[in-house]
Write a structure and sequence with these properties.
The structure is a homodimer. With about 700 residues, the first copy, chain A, is α/β, with parallel strands linked by helices. Chain A has 23 helices and 30 strands. In chain A, α7 runs parallel beside α9, α11 runs parallel beside α16 and α13 packs parallel to α14.
Chain lengths: ~700, ~700
């Protein structure tokens, strides 16, 4: 990430724009861009300079042979010429003192090593001159407030409050086309393409501080610098809602992304964790992305989860009600006063509780009075207006009324509309768009938007402290243990070192002693107290269970002696070459709840911490949650909350509740350990025994794999 | 359900239609209906008779004072007059020999007891004259093939192949309005309203056999006769795809439905199970309902799950690829020949594997040749065409080409399109609609439709035998046990009777003896073999664990003696009044996998069988599945497959796989027991111990609750 995000202003409000590759030929992109720049109503208001050595004048403007000959003021270059010409043109831009360039042309990393080298060169030139680059291989910038449109896509005209940052230029084209027909308005469209310089992280920084937008939406295919993204996203989401749609979420999707951008998509779990920790809202489709953005841009956030429904048709209201629960919302019941008020003017058969169903005859005055009553009703936190076209009603007039009721009420309650239909509702949709009343075609979409608004409200209502290192760490001890293993050429820590590593970060392990003979085994077991567990001690055998190297519930001295012999015999048989140090005699923890903590280093986001309940829940159900390290206590709490089987920690069927505080502490400490020690590639505490409340947690077994040197 | 579905033809192709309540006043519904009936192009081609005593002529047609004076031929009455007049009018219709009547007016069960009584009366009159009734409180029938439109909703004109049956009239209005703008065509719109006579089940029967439709879509709010629905749905789904959207799926949704229709909505689990067992496809939103119907109506089913993607933009393709996996599909890789063929004419930077990304410059000929190559490629089972509007391409011309390539190829491979945008794609959408190429605005919607097509194909590829009673049942023994309990005034069977009930249906239980003294306990335990379980025997205490009435792993005679005393002491302390018969000494099954089988009687669909893994999986994770009894072996197999924790049955971490055949058998037998014995209100086998393969399954504990008499 570039150090100074304010330099990005040159992309949005430049003082003079040169178009290198301008063309008078309507079949060329350099023509389309110039038309947009010069648009009489929505074009750039400052000076525009076509640059093309082969023309003297284009679209009535004087054309310059090169950027060096363009007069002052000029701040931004838009470049649409073959890729191989671009490095030397960028040199010229630098010499001419430009502050920013948008490279629209393709022919860079997406075409292979040669293009990658070209991209690197462009960045080097830009850095040398202190110039910012957007692209290459993106369609550029639309800013409806400046206004400025450096793309060849026409049609994004109305002033809006939603920023869209997209790693796919083509997607921008499709969305502009769709938004135009839907009355969806944007503040900015930013196509970052191959993001050789300006990335989503830089833009998040800049856009968060900008007052032309209220919501930032992102379409991403890969993230290259995980920590920059996390930091920028954290900061941005304090200021405004940020919604993210990322492709490469599934196996097949990842393949598609990889072939498309030539970029290695990060594992999705890490991205998802980053969103959660930063307060970004992840969505899974384009329609959701903009449906939610529309609501967030135009309506206040709901202060609770009780949504009232006002309708002229029961069916769509029932479908809306069904959608509430999965979206984390609940159906508001109308307060008694409201019910009385409604009964005074509604059809006697109308339903005044649950969804308020005014029936098909409801007209303008019914909608007006019912909406007024619901706005005044403290029993709801938001209102969904449903209108189905009926004969003898005028949807457009009703919408006009609804929009003015909302405006006149000065309410701080969110109102969304579902206008079910299309052919007879064009006018109604237009009135809603004009009036800042988000309107959806289907009840489910409106409810989904409400759900996302509520999530945003909950995020803002909660403190999100940054992770802080817990106390009592011995990082030097941890480093020593890891470098000792490295010196010995080991990829896996032996059991004693692994336990010592945890202890260095304040994570307790059961009592444990290494017995080298059967008699020692019996003696240690008696000292620790029966029952004990016996575990093979060998640095060369990772999966001890598979070779019969683990015995649990060993209950007396005779069994302890036999156990030593059986374990060592089996290990020798299975791995004749392995170094066998003896058998560990371990305190058995019998009354704890088994959980798993894991760490896996993500190539983009660094250490990813996993939490799940004991063995089968993880293996059979994949009921686990992830966060990036380091984590705050609250991150750890949320992680636990996401795992469905974590209910077991509350103590089911009379079992005592587990020591949740100790579990949280262990998760935080594991995260800190992983964050502090980049040598740790993978780590599994399996199981961590969470004892009954007040008694702590013990890491019963731990496996640590180091990264390759 | 009425015995003869063929009588319904009078609603669709009547010989003469009378409109009772016809009006010349354009603000009345009776005017709108008449206009639709008489529409010059899409109106009913047979005789139409306005009936209204106050007019001599309406819209140029002679008006009749009453139905009795209407001349021949007349078969169907459409009634839109105040509810209180309707019973006597129906009498007249009967006398006049009409075969069917559609009651559009409201004022029936939805307004309370008086309306309910009126509805009952109407049904009685209709039955007496052998007349069928549709409604009341629905908007009637549109049949685009006849054509006939008895509703007041204008606009559904194009000939289509999708039937829509709706319990909400208003929803019909909204959907007609939307479909009209979207170019979605229907064969029939059937608004069943309060369904006093004709229900969704009757219509499924009729529509399945009709060749004017290819897909049936349902919007339902309640089902009143579960077994009629199941039977009709089973039969219908053999003939064509049936898609169902039901409201009242969640707690809040149920409230909405109940207030809307005044009907008690069945528990959703039972409806969902009915859909699965009948081959109906349940969807969760209106857009999905019609998105899938469009694909099913116009494209062949995919023979496998490999979907190829052809695109001019990477972003939407990546999103489509992401959506494949959750929809049960996978991304097709292009075969080597196809890749070579594509490379011959595509941009060198184009991607020819994974999604075939032709890049933004792709035009008509690229789309044509690439589609031809993919249609010929055996490595895919279906093709998703994605087109994003770009400057310099003509989407409409491209669509024309694509539609003719598909037609000319005579392919049996499904092709769907995603046209991302709207403003510049109106022509392209129109061409796709005309050409029978289903086109969606967003990649996720197209993939969802593919997923539903694949589900339908899989359903058709599998045999679905009807449930058959297993062998070796002793139903008389079961009935005796139940009536004995009834005679003794018990709601719950005691343990011995409950076990005997299972044994009567061939479900094994562990060895078990009732010990009345501590010494007996020790002796029986020794005979059965240690370890044993001890369980309180009391008909009055249902939840034995809660009073400390269960001891497991009792390992010697002394412990057995002490166990008896402890259990009896605790039971007496907790429930001084309870009858305590002693302690059951039970064989401990230690090496099985614990599962739960349950039965709960649904008020609409009858006994609902539940399956889940042992205790915590059910309680903490709600990881369970449901089917209606009786079930086939295949139903039972599918039930097991739906439970995620059922992976444990395969034997994780070296455990032996469990006896799945025995589990299937136990599920089928429990279902048969529940189906045969209506006295059983609830039944829980918890746990059923499924032993290692070949060794069967044992019902370790069972609880049976009888229905109130």
């Amino acid at each position: 990430m570039h150090p100074d995000p304010t330099t990005l202003v040159s992309f949005f409000r430049p003082n003079g724009v040169a178009l290198i590759g301008a063309s008078g030929d309507p079949t060329k992109l350099g023509y389309g861009i110039l038309v947009n720049l010069l648009h009489p109503q929505f074009g750039y208001p400052g000076p525009v300079y076509p640059v093309n050595p082969k023309a003297e004048e284009i679209l009535g403007r004087p054309c310059y042979p090169d950027i060096l000959s363009v007069p002052d003021p000029v701040e931004l270059a838009v470049i649409i010429v073959p890729a191989e010409m671009i490095p030397s043109l960028l040199e010229d831009c630098g010499k001419r003192g430009l502050k920013a360039a948008i490279i629209i042309s393709g022919g860079f990393r997406e075409v292979g090593p040669e293009g990658e080298e070209r991209e690197r060169l462009c960045l080097e030139i830009a850095r040398r001159y202190g110039m910012r680059l957007m692209g290459p291989n993106g369609i550029g910038v639309i800013d409806t407030h400046t206004p400025l449109n450096t793309t060849f896509a026409a049609g994004l005209h109305g002033l809006g409050y939603i920023d869209f940052v997209s790693q796919s230029g083509a997607l921008c084209g499709g969305i502009i086309d769709w938004a135009q027909a839907r009355g969806l308005h944007f503040s900015r469209f930013l196509s970052i393409g191959n993001k050789v310089d300006v990335s989503e992280s830089d833009l998040l920084d800049y856009l968060a501080a900008d007052d032309h937008s209220r919501v930032i939406t992102l379409y991403l295919e890969d993230i290259r610098d995980g920590s920059a993204f996390l930091a920028a996203a954290r900061k941005a989401s304090l200021h405004k809602s940020v919604l993210a749609l990322k492709s490469g979420r599934t196996h097949s999707g990842q393949a598609a992304t990889a072939s498309h951008t030539g970029a290695l998509a990060g594992v999705h779990a890490a991205f998802r964790a980053a969103c959660k920790q930063a307060g970004l809202i992840e969505v899974d489709g384009i329609e959701n992305l903009f449906g939610a953005a529309l609501a967030l841009a135009h309506q206040p956030l709901p202060r609770g989860n009780r949504i009232a429904i006002l309708t002229n048709a029961g069916g769509p209201a029932a479908l809306a009600a069904d959608a509430l629960e999965p979206a984390g919302l609940t159906l508001a019941h109308t307060g008694p006063e409201t019910r009385a008020a409604l009964r005074a003017f509604l059809n006697p058969s109308a339903v005044t509780d649950g969804p308020v169903d005014m029936l098909g005859g409801a007209g303008e005055s019914h909608y007006r009075r019912a909406l007024q009553a619901l706005l005044a009703d403290p029993a709801n936190d938001g209102i969904l207006l449903i209108l189905v076209p009926m004969v003898l009603i005028d949807p457009q007039a009703i919408l006009q009324t609804l929009v003015s009721v909302i405006r006149d009420s000065g309410t701080r309650k969110p109102v969304l509309a579902c206008l079910m239909g299309e052919a007879s509702l064009k006018g109604a949709f237009a009135v809603a768009d004009e009036g800042g009343l988000p309107a959806y075609r289907f009840p489910e979409d409106a409810v989904q938007a409400f759900g996302i608004m509520r999530r945003r409200a909950l995020w803002l209502e909660t403190e999100h402290p940054l992770p802080e290192p817990p106390s009592g760490l011995a990082p030097q001890r941890a480093r020593d243990l890891l470098s000792a293993a490295r010196r010995n050429g080991r990829r896996a820590l032996d059991a004693a070192a692994a336990r010592a590593l945890l202890e260095a970060y304040g994570i307790s392990t059961p009592q444990d002693r290494l017995a080298t003979t059967p008699d020692e085994t019996a003696r240690f077991a008696a000292e620790i107290g029966f029952p004990v567990a016996l575990k093979l001690a060998s640095p060369d055998i990772l999966h001890k269970t598979e070779v019969g190297g683990v015995l649990l519930n060993v209950s007396d001295e005779a069994a302890a002696r036999e156990g030593w012999q059986a374990i060592v015999r089996r290990a020798r048989a299975a791995h004749p070459q392995a170094e066998i140090r003896g058998v560990q005699v371990q305190q058995m923890v019998t009354d704890g709840q088994e959980v798993i903590l894991g760490v896996k280093r993500d190539p983009v986001f660094g250490p990813l911490v996993m939490f799940g309940l004991g063995g089968v829940y993880v293996e059979a159900l994949a009921d686990v949650s992830f966060r990036l390290a380091p984590l705050s206590r609250q991150d750890a709490e949320e992680m636990i909350g996401e795992v469905r089987a974590a209910k077991l920690l509350e103590g089911l069927r009379g079992a005592p509740p587990a020591d949740r505080a100790a579990l949280v502490e262990a998760i935080v400490r594991i995260g800190q350990l992983a964050a502090d020690c980049p040598e740790i590639e993978e780590l599994d505490v399996n199981p961590l025994m969470v004892l009954p409340a007040g008694r702590g947690a013990l890491a019963a077994d731990v496996r640590v794999i180091l990264s390759e040197v």
